[in-house]
Protein backbone atom coordinates (compact mmCIF):
# COMPACT_ATOMS: atom_id res chain seq x y z
CA UNK A 1 0.00 0.00 0.00
CA UNK A 2 1.27 3.52 -0.72
CA UNK A 3 2.81 5.79 1.86
CA UNK A 4 0.69 8.59 3.31
CA UNK A 5 -2.29 6.26 3.37
CA UNK A 6 -5.18 7.13 5.61
CA UNK A 7 -6.09 4.70 8.38
CA UNK A 8 -9.35 4.93 10.34
CA UNK A 9 -9.40 3.04 13.66
CA UNK A 10 -12.42 2.67 15.92
CA UNK A 11 -11.89 2.21 19.65
CA UNK A 12 -8.53 3.93 19.22
CA UNK A 13 -8.21 5.63 22.60
CA UNK A 14 -6.57 2.75 24.49
CA UNK A 15 -5.40 -0.86 24.35
CA UNK A 16 -4.95 -2.53 20.98
CA UNK A 17 -6.58 0.36 19.11
CA UNK A 18 -4.11 2.84 20.55
CA UNK A 19 -1.14 0.61 19.72
CA UNK A 20 -2.40 0.21 16.16
CA UNK A 21 -2.67 3.99 15.95
CA UNK A 22 0.93 4.29 17.19
CA UNK A 23 2.12 1.68 14.70
CA UNK A 24 0.55 3.23 11.62
CA UNK A 25 1.48 6.76 12.68
CA UNK A 26 5.05 5.50 12.97
CA UNK A 27 4.79 4.28 9.38
CA UNK A 28 3.90 7.78 8.24
CA UNK A 29 0.18 7.18 7.82
CA UNK A 30 -2.52 9.72 8.48
CA UNK A 31 -4.30 8.12 11.42
CA UNK A 32 -7.88 9.07 12.24
CA UNK A 33 -8.70 7.79 15.71
CA UNK A 34 -12.37 7.24 16.47
CA UNK A 35 -13.61 6.81 20.03
CA UNK A 36 -16.21 7.79 22.58
CA UNK A 37 -13.69 9.69 24.71
CA UNK A 38 -10.22 10.65 23.51
CA UNK A 39 -7.14 9.89 25.58
CA UNK A 40 -4.04 12.12 25.77
CA UNK A 41 -2.03 9.22 24.30
CA UNK A 42 -4.27 9.06 21.22
CA UNK A 43 -4.13 12.82 20.72
CA UNK A 44 -0.33 12.57 20.69
CA UNK A 45 -0.17 10.06 17.84
CA UNK A 46 -3.28 10.54 15.70
CA UNK A 47 -3.44 12.99 12.84
CA UNK A 48 -7.02 13.63 13.84
CA UNK A 49 -9.35 12.39 16.57
CA UNK A 50 -13.11 12.06 16.16
CA UNK A 51 -14.56 11.59 19.62
CA UNK A 52 -18.01 11.33 21.18
CA UNK A 53 -18.70 8.55 18.68
CA UNK A 54 -20.86 5.66 19.91
CA UNK A 55 -20.89 3.40 16.87
CA UNK A 56 -23.99 1.56 18.11
CA UNK A 57 -26.21 4.62 17.66
CA UNK A 58 -27.47 6.40 14.55
CA UNK A 59 -26.22 9.75 15.87
CA UNK A 60 -22.79 8.32 16.67
CA UNK A 61 -22.51 6.79 13.21
CA UNK A 62 -23.53 10.11 11.66
CA UNK A 63 -20.82 11.90 13.66
CA UNK A 64 -18.27 9.48 12.21
CA UNK A 65 -19.63 9.94 8.67
CA UNK A 66 -19.50 13.71 9.03
CA UNK A 67 -15.99 13.54 10.50
CA UNK A 68 -14.51 11.70 7.52
CA UNK A 69 -16.64 13.27 4.78
CA UNK A 70 -14.70 13.54 1.54
CA UNK A 71 -11.77 11.57 2.97
CA UNK A 72 -10.33 8.63 1.03
CA UNK A 73 -9.80 5.73 3.47
CA UNK A 74 -7.08 3.21 2.59
CA UNK A 75 -7.56 1.06 5.68
CA UNK A 76 -10.53 0.77 8.02
CA UNK A 77 -9.89 -1.07 11.29
CA UNK A 78 -13.02 -2.02 13.22
CA UNK A 79 -11.50 -2.44 16.66
CA UNK A 80 -14.08 -1.23 19.22
CA UNK A 81 -15.31 -4.15 21.31
CA UNK A 82 -16.83 -5.31 24.59
CA UNK A 83 -16.21 -8.49 26.60
CA UNK A 84 -18.71 -9.57 29.25
CA UNK A 85 -19.31 -12.94 30.86
CA UNK A 86 -22.44 -15.07 31.02
CA UNK A 87 -22.78 -18.48 32.61
CA UNK A 88 -25.51 -21.02 32.03
CA UNK A 89 -28.15 -20.61 34.71
CA UNK A 90 -27.65 -16.88 35.06
CA UNK A 91 -27.54 -15.62 31.48
CA UNK A 92 -28.12 -11.89 31.07
CA UNK A 93 -29.69 -11.48 27.65
CA UNK A 94 -29.40 -7.71 27.81
CA UNK A 95 -25.64 -8.22 28.11
CA UNK A 96 -25.69 -10.47 25.06
CA UNK A 97 -27.66 -7.87 23.08
CA UNK A 98 -25.19 -5.15 24.04
CA UNK A 99 -22.23 -7.26 22.92
CA UNK A 100 -23.96 -8.05 19.64
CA UNK A 101 -24.54 -4.33 19.06
CA UNK A 102 -20.92 -3.35 19.78
CA UNK A 103 -18.99 -6.37 18.51
CA UNK A 104 -21.00 -7.36 15.44
CA UNK A 105 -23.59 -4.85 14.28
CA UNK A 106 -21.44 -1.74 14.76
CA UNK A 107 -18.53 -2.93 12.55
CA UNK A 108 -21.02 -3.79 9.80
CA UNK A 109 -22.71 -0.39 10.17
CA UNK A 110 -19.35 1.38 9.96
CA UNK A 111 -18.17 -0.66 6.97
CA UNK A 112 -21.40 -0.05 5.07
CA UNK A 113 -21.32 3.66 5.87
CA UNK A 114 -17.70 4.20 4.80
CA UNK A 115 -17.15 1.68 2.03
CA UNK A 116 -17.83 4.22 -0.72
CA UNK A 117 -14.75 6.11 0.51
CA UNK A 118 -12.45 3.08 0.35
CA UNK A 119 -10.63 2.95 -3.01
CA UNK A 120 -9.65 -0.05 -5.10
CA UNK A 121 -6.78 -1.67 -3.21
CA UNK A 122 -8.15 -0.56 0.15
CA UNK A 123 -8.65 -2.89 3.09
CA UNK A 124 -10.97 -3.55 6.02
CA UNK A 125 -9.65 -5.30 9.13
CA UNK A 126 -12.19 -6.53 11.65
CA UNK A 127 -10.62 -7.18 15.05
CA UNK A 128 -12.45 -10.32 16.14
CA UNK A 129 -11.50 -13.18 18.48
CA UNK A 130 -10.73 -16.87 18.23
CA UNK A 131 -13.59 -17.15 20.77
CA UNK A 132 -15.80 -16.54 17.74
CA UNK A 133 -14.60 -19.85 16.31
CA UNK A 134 -17.22 -22.56 16.77
CA UNK A 135 -14.72 -25.32 15.98
CA UNK A 136 -12.25 -23.97 18.55
CA UNK A 137 -14.74 -23.76 21.44
CA UNK A 138 -13.66 -26.34 24.02
CA UNK A 139 -14.52 -24.45 27.21
CA UNK A 140 -18.08 -23.13 26.76
CA UNK A 141 -19.43 -20.04 28.49
CA UNK A 142 -19.00 -16.44 27.31
CA UNK A 143 -22.25 -16.76 25.35
CA UNK A 144 -22.55 -13.16 24.26
CA UNK A 145 -18.90 -12.62 23.37
CA UNK A 146 -18.59 -15.88 21.43
CA UNK A 147 -21.84 -15.31 19.54
CA UNK A 148 -21.08 -11.68 18.73
CA UNK A 149 -17.62 -12.49 17.41
CA UNK A 150 -18.98 -15.43 15.40
CA UNK A 151 -21.51 -13.02 13.90
CA UNK A 152 -18.73 -10.54 13.13
CA UNK A 153 -16.81 -13.30 11.36
CA UNK A 154 -19.87 -14.10 9.25
CA UNK A 155 -20.41 -10.44 8.43
CA UNK A 156 -16.75 -10.04 7.51
CA UNK A 157 -16.80 -13.05 5.21
CA UNK A 158 -19.83 -11.68 3.38
CA UNK A 159 -18.20 -8.26 3.11
CA UNK A 160 -15.14 -9.91 1.61
CA UNK A 161 -17.22 -11.61 -1.07
CA UNK A 162 -19.31 -8.52 -1.81
CA UNK A 163 -16.30 -6.18 -2.02
CA UNK A 164 -13.88 -8.38 -3.93
CA UNK A 165 -14.94 -7.01 -7.31
CA UNK A 166 -14.47 -3.50 -5.94
CA UNK A 167 -10.87 -4.42 -5.14
CA UNK A 168 -11.33 -4.16 -1.36
CA UNK A 169 -9.92 -6.96 0.80
CA UNK A 170 -11.36 -7.89 4.21
CA UNK A 171 -9.81 -9.86 7.07
CA UNK A 172 -11.01 -11.12 10.43
CA UNK A 173 -8.08 -10.83 12.84
CA UNK A 174 -7.63 -12.28 16.33
CA UNK A 175 -5.22 -10.10 18.31
CA UNK A 176 -4.10 -12.82 20.70
CA UNK A 177 -4.55 -12.87 24.47
CA UNK A 178 -3.45 -9.31 25.05
CA UNK A 179 -2.65 -7.49 28.30
CA UNK A 180 -5.43 -4.91 28.15
CA UNK A 181 -8.13 -3.61 30.48
CA UNK A 182 -10.65 -5.89 28.76
CA UNK A 183 -9.00 -8.92 30.44
CA UNK A 184 -7.79 -7.10 33.57
CA UNK A 185 -4.29 -6.99 32.06
CA UNK A 186 -3.93 -10.75 32.42
CA UNK A 187 -2.96 -11.53 28.83
CA UNK A 188 0.06 -13.34 27.42
CA UNK A 189 1.38 -10.66 25.05
CA UNK A 190 1.65 -6.88 25.17
CA UNK A 191 -0.52 -4.56 23.09
CA UNK A 192 2.64 -3.57 21.19
CA UNK A 193 3.35 -7.20 20.25
CA UNK A 194 -0.26 -7.71 19.20
CA UNK A 195 -0.33 -4.55 17.08
CA UNK A 196 2.88 -5.57 15.30
CA UNK A 197 1.39 -8.96 14.43
CA UNK A 198 -1.93 -7.48 13.35
CA UNK A 199 -0.16 -4.97 11.13
CA UNK A 200 1.79 -7.79 9.49
CA UNK A 201 -1.44 -9.67 8.76
CA UNK A 202 -2.99 -6.50 7.32
CA UNK A 203 0.07 -5.93 5.14
CA UNK A 204 -0.27 -9.48 3.83
CA UNK A 205 -4.00 -9.14 3.14
CA UNK A 206 -4.93 -9.17 -0.53
CA UNK A 207 -7.72 -10.22 -2.88
CA UNK A 208 -6.41 -13.78 -2.95
CA UNK A 209 -6.77 -14.37 0.80
CA UNK A 210 -9.63 -11.95 1.46
CA UNK A 211 -12.25 -13.25 3.87
CA UNK A 212 -9.75 -15.23 5.94
CA UNK A 213 -9.68 -15.56 9.74
CA UNK A 214 -6.18 -15.10 11.14
CA UNK A 215 -4.37 -15.05 14.48
CA UNK A 216 -2.01 -12.11 14.83
CA UNK A 217 0.87 -14.63 14.90
CA UNK A 218 0.05 -15.73 11.35
CA UNK A 219 -1.93 -18.89 12.13
CA UNK A 220 -5.11 -19.33 10.09
CA UNK A 221 -7.96 -20.07 12.49
CA UNK A 222 -10.88 -22.47 12.02
CA UNK A 223 -14.43 -21.17 11.72
Automatic annotation (TrEMBL):
Tell me one Pfam family matched here: adh_short
- What does the record give under GO molecular function? oxidoreductase activity, acting on the CH-OH group of donors, NAD or NADP as acceptor
The organism's superkingdom is given as: Bacteria
Similarity remark: Belongs to the short-chain dehydrogenases/reductases (SDR) family.
Task: Please state the gene responsible for encoding this protein.
Answer: csgA
Identify the InterPro entries for this entry.
NAD(P)-bd_dom_sf, SDR_enzymes, SDR_fam
The name under which this protein is listed is C-factor
> Which organism is this protein's natural source?
Marinobacter salarius
Amino acid sequence: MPEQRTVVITGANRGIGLELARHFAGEGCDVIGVCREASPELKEVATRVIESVDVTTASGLQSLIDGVKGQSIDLLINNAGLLQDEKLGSIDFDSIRTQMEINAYAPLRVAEALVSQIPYGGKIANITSRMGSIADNDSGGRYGYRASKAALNAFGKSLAMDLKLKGIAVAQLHPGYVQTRMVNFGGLITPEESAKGLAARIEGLNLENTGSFWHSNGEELPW
